[in-house]
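Usage example:
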Amino acid sequence: MNPLNIDTTGLMDVFAVEVQLGLLGLVLIAVDLITRKGRHSGPATMVRLICGLGLIAILAATWLADPVTDSSWGTLDSFAVFFKRFFLSASLLTLFLSGPYEDRLMAGRGEFPALLVFTTCGMCMLASVTDFVSLFVGLELVTVILFLMAAWRPRLPRSLEAGIKFVIIGALAATFMVYGIAFVYGTTGSFDLSAVAAAVNAPGGPSTGLKFGLLMILVGLCFKIGAVPFHVWLPDVYQGAPTPVTAFLSVASKSAGVVLFMRLVYTVLGPAAADWVPVLGGLAALTLIMGGLGAIPQTDLKRFLAYSGIAHAGFLLMALATHSQDSASAILFYTVTYLFANIGAFLVIVIVSRTNDSSHMDRVNGLADRSPFLAFVLTCSLLSLGGVPPFAGFFAKFMVLRAAVADPHLIWLVAVSLVMVVTSLYYYLCVIKRIYMRNAEDTGVLEVFGGTKVLLLFCALAVLAIGIYPGPLETVARNAASSLFG
Amino acid sequence: MTDILSQYALTFLVVIPALVTTLLFFLPASNAQAIRGVSCFGAALTLVIAGWMFFDYDQAAGGFQYVTAIDWVPSLGIQYKVGADGISVAMVLLTGIVYLAGGLVSMGVDKRVKDFYILLSALVTGVFGVFVSLDLFFFYFFYELAVVPMYLLIGYWGSANREYATMKLTLYLTAGAVVALMGLLMLYFSGITAEPTFDLTAIIAAVDAGGGLDFSDQKLLFPLLLVGFATIAPMWPLHTWSPGGHAAAPSAASMMHAGVLMKLGSYAIIRIALPVLPEGAVYWLPWVAVLCCFNIIYGGYIAMSQRDMKFVIGYSSSSHMGYVLLGVASMSVMSMDGAVFLMFAHGVMTAMAFGLIGFFYEQTHTRMLDDLGGLMHQIPFVGMMFMMCAMASLGLPGFANFASELMVIVGSWERYPIPTLCAIFGLVIGATYLLRTLREAFQGPMDPKWSELKDATTPMQRAPFLLLVGTLLVFGFYPLPLVDLISTGVEPIVAKLLSAEAGLGL
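Running the assembly step on the lines above writes:
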């Protein structure tokens, strides 16, 4: 039965979610082929419905699976499970989010859910990886599909431009990554994360080649989370890509980078992470400043959220630089709050840009008059991103700061981040100013339909509820993070 | 009933405005009457509870009463913990009075009534929360909650130059807040308590038991808290957000802001910075005594040169806050009692001044002294009230402001004679600009174009002003109950400062 004599113990247990997602994707393609009429795609209602139900079923099944930590294929610790659930939820929310956007797509309506499922599959795989080979495979699975999704509207030049820029920078980052992996393999003779961790923390310290390799890998990962020096693609790609894809990029793709970053910093570097504080801290400070200052002059909502996303990546890097258990749970908490706030904001953008397909900031002018409900949701999302109580983003920033202040070496970084918190409040308030204090050019009342309204309300209430009573989510994040520290 | 009240009184104070906020979301925006009714009912309810606490607080026992503690995020040492000492009760009473008066004054708001009251009650939730929190996390949480709604209140319902003023205000106060946050987090990790905790009472207990920080650490930490909180106090030179913000704000917002929010700064210094870092306080407070002279003299002179009435009152507020800071810096029971009493009296007085200016501004659409004049002929009730307000502000005996300023001056003389002389001279400056404002706006011949102005005639229009002026007069003639109440909170703090000073031998 096993001609290659490969030990497959635990393979199906660790990657059960991925297998389910792969099958779901294939089913979706088949359903699309069967239900499609003629050359142009009609509404992909059936495909979307199956996709949604499938994702919910897979998400629910994650509660039934037992943890697996002794397989050589990967790990299914509570940290991996947390992120698998996170990616599945993000994918589900993106699927809902793409509903109101679908009528702007000429073709490929049915393939969209399938690609979403495949890229989610790659992300879930990244949550479980324990060696550099599957890490790279998972990463490319995610990235290559995202290239496609970014260019999803081929008749729109800016969408194509987004896809091409994404490919070029992505390829560059991937070469850094492969180069780094090669060095790591060359110096340690192993792709296994724990073997590399042992080499890194061996007495006498890691060799220069190993350090160089790890540095290259970290730099390559900066591409995924949108941190300096690979942040330049974000604004262009976010602006050009179809809005649901942008939303997915901003929450799920970024978090995929976060997963790997956390595995590398907390597991591979481990105690040696203290030596990397200047690197991670420096990148964090630069990213915070770059994102914060870049967001100020923006006039396009999606570009604006791209820079705001860079600033948030800076915050996450700051937590990584802290490399304590507290900071790990802070990162998990942060990604969840960021998910709800961002999905809420992007959904509002999908709705306000419906009439002329523009995401210029003018589109939210006077939104409070056109739709008080949308204005409320967008305000909640932006204030949560800005870290204002009683919204969830406040507690997320608080946790990161609390973890960072514990390390006396990082006081300078905390000071930088606090300056950037005030700066970020400025640019979020500038958007809120448009919502409440400007007159709308387009005075038509904005309709929000049933399902969309429920999703918007869900996002707004989620940021409020988590912000007021963060305890339960904090416990979940803490438990998930604890498995990183064995 | 009383049991429940005494156990959860402070929680009610926080929850009632929060409930009002929530309830308003579900009322249709077109039903302005119901929205106003719900808001003012909520405000009246908080005032009743605050008034009940004023009489119920056990002065003989002192300390923090009505304490409720619920674990919120146990792994981080965060609890929802509220409690009130004499200082908190006085501030809560002030908030209740100004909230109700502000709610009543805002009956005239006719644009987006629903949003207005939602933001106002969210802001008040934050203010009550700060005054009753005994947990540093929640203290900060409520502090930020009180600051941010102001952005929209001023930005949308405000007057001239509002967008600039409101952005400046929000950013200044948030910048101050994050500096304080850094201080609070460093305090949290400083190892005063065995397990890091945000519980203020536990930290103070540990400090009292001799576990305070080293003098060198206190010297470093105290300025963070001082600068952070003094931004909203506002201490010179961090005051520049305040007059512009107050001037641009709609009536109720400037009443809440100048009347109550500004007091959060000095309250936070008294509540957190002084008892936790007494030696740092002893080291740094002389600098506060110097800076507050700038508040008093510089603020007063700037007020004198203003032509916009709201700017006059705005700068006069930063001038008066100088007295509060002087009272705090002087570290005597008398001066600090006076400082807290002045926070109360000034809050009521300045809320009334902004309410009155707002009342006629809605009709005149100008507050420039050059355009006004002789308004007393046309709107005698408002004029009369403004006169009482000006008299209170310049320190006429019979108003609470006189009693409190006198206490600050007498209490500060021994330690800081020169700043006290500045403070006394500040009274003369205050009298100058207030009397001049009164004369130019309300006395002399009236411009015929104002002959259409309507006075406050209905009981509902008059009620907020009568409530405010009544408070000033009652506590002006009979300040003892309030001063005794405040004293129960101030005495232990002053005792700590004095023993820290004796220990340092400075």
